[in-house]
């Protein structure tokens, strides 16, 4: 049962609201008119807040272009506050019908092997390696791999830019979890003879939004690709990394090796960004199940890893 005093109070309030509803409806309009009538000097001007590296990176993520560092340079790694690394979409240098994986996996390379300027011995060794399922590849022995082979390695890689020391690093999960140093300080390759290594000696510079990496002094023990294409210590590799968006990068490179090819030639493949994950520890020696493929007649190439 409703209390009479309570009911009367509710009716009175309803009458008040009804009588003054016009005032309530006009209140917002009156307030707006008052605000517009204030002198301009009484309206505080809000100063624009300076952009920070984090806000700039976040804005870049929402656009079609690549993320950038505070100085405007393209950021080849994860934007601030995020994780991620790169993996190869394909990783093949050539389409080779003799490739031991050709029957079960699409090659989709940019160059056909008959269009690559292989010397006769280079083609013969490539075919031999495919006939033996590339069992003599140094990768199966937990050795580092340079050039394109590093970029297309399983489990991905990360590019770390350190402008404060004028260097960049390519960090890989596999390939003995190795890294490559790229000197960005304008230096040239040393004039004196360098000792050939698996990764070579790399210097880099920017051409617009493209990172250009120039590498020499590769060891003939190093495989720079998974197609079985050999290289020699005369190899001069020119790589071009162009991040076209947050999630995509074009990787193009020119192989100039007069010891193995009759002319310089260019190929490449696309790279895909893998967000929200980071490179992890990988111990090749502890997880290596490849030794079973390393034995048998004809399994070793003339160039022993």
Could you explain the architecture of this structure?
The longest helix is centred in the first third of the chain and has 16 residues, at 4-19. Strand 5 (201-207) and strand 6 (210-216) form a beta hairpin. Residues 1-62 and 301-305 have low confidence and may be disordered. A nine-stranded mixed sheet has the order 1-9-8-7-6-5-4-3-2. It is of the alpha+beta class and 305 residues long. Helices cover 20% and strands 21% of the residues. The protein is globular, with a radius of gyration of 31 Å.
What keywords describe this structure?
alpha+beta, single chain, disordered C terminus, nine-stranded mixed β-sheet, 21% strand, 20% helix
What secondary-structure arrangement, pairings included, does this model have?
Blueprint (H helix, E strand, L loop, with lengths): L3 H16 L1 H16 L16 H9 L22 E5 L31 H12 L16 H4 L5 E6 L4 E6 L6 E5 L17 E7 L2 E7 L19 E8 L4 E9 L8 E11 L8 H4 L18
Parallel strand pairs: 4-5
Antiparallel strand pairs: 1-9, 2-3, 3-4, 5-6, 6-7, 7-8, 8-9
Q: What distance lies between the first and last C-alpha atoms, to the nearest angstrom?
A: 97 Å
Task: Indicate the radius of gyration in whole angstroms.
Answer: 31 Å
Strand percentage: 15-25%
Percent in helix: 10-25%
Tell me the total number of β-strands: 9
Parts with pLDDT < 50 across at least 5 consecutive residues: 1-62, 301-305
Mean pLDDT: 80
Strand order of the largest sheet: 1-9-8-7-6-5-4-3-2
Q: Which structural class matches the secondary elements?
A: alpha+beta
Question: What order do the SSEs take from the amino end to the carboxyl end, as H and E?
Answer: HHHEHHEEEEEEEEH
What overall form do the CA principal axes indicate?
globular
Distinct helical segment count:
6
Q: Tell me about the biggest sheet?
A: 9 strands, mixed
């Amino acid at each position: 049962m409703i209390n009479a005093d309570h009911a009367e109070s509710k009716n009175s309030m309803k009458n008040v609201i009804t009588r003054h509803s016009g005032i309530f409806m006009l209140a917002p309009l009156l307030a707006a008119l008052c605000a517009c009538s204030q002198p301009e000097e009484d309206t505080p001007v809000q100063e624009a807040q300076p952009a920070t590296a984090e806000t700039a990176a976040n804005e870049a993520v929402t656009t079609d272009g690549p993320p950038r560092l505070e100085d405007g340079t393209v950021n080849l790694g994860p934007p601030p506050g995020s994780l991620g690394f790169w993996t190869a979409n394909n990783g093949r240098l050539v389409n080779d019908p003799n490739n031991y994986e050709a029957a079960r996996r699409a090659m989709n390379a940019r160059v056909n092997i008959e269009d690559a300027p292989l010397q006769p011995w280079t083609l013969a060794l490539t075919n031999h390696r495919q006939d033996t399922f590339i069992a003599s590849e140094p990768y199966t022995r937990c050795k580092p791999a340079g050039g394109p082979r590093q970029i297309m390695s399983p489990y991905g890689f990360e590019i770390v830019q350190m402008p404060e020391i004028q260097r960049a690093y390519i960090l890989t999960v596999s390939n003995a979890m190795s890294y490559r140093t790229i000197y960005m300080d304008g230096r040239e390759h040393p004039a004196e003879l360098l000792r050939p290594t698996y990764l070579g000696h790399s210097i880099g510079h920017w051409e617009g939004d493209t990172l250009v990496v120039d590498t020499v002094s590769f060891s003939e023990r190093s495989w720079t690709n998974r197609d079985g294409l050999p290289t020699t210590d005369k190899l001069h590799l020119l790589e071009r990394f162009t991040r076209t968006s947050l999630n995509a990068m074009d990787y193009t490179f020119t192989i100039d090796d007069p010891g193995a090819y009759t002319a310089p030639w260019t190929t490449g493949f696309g790279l895909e960004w893998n967000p929200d994950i980071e490179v992890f520890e990988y111990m090749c020696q502890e997880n290596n199940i490849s030794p079973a493929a390393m034995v048998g007649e004809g399994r070793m190439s003339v160039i022993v890893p």
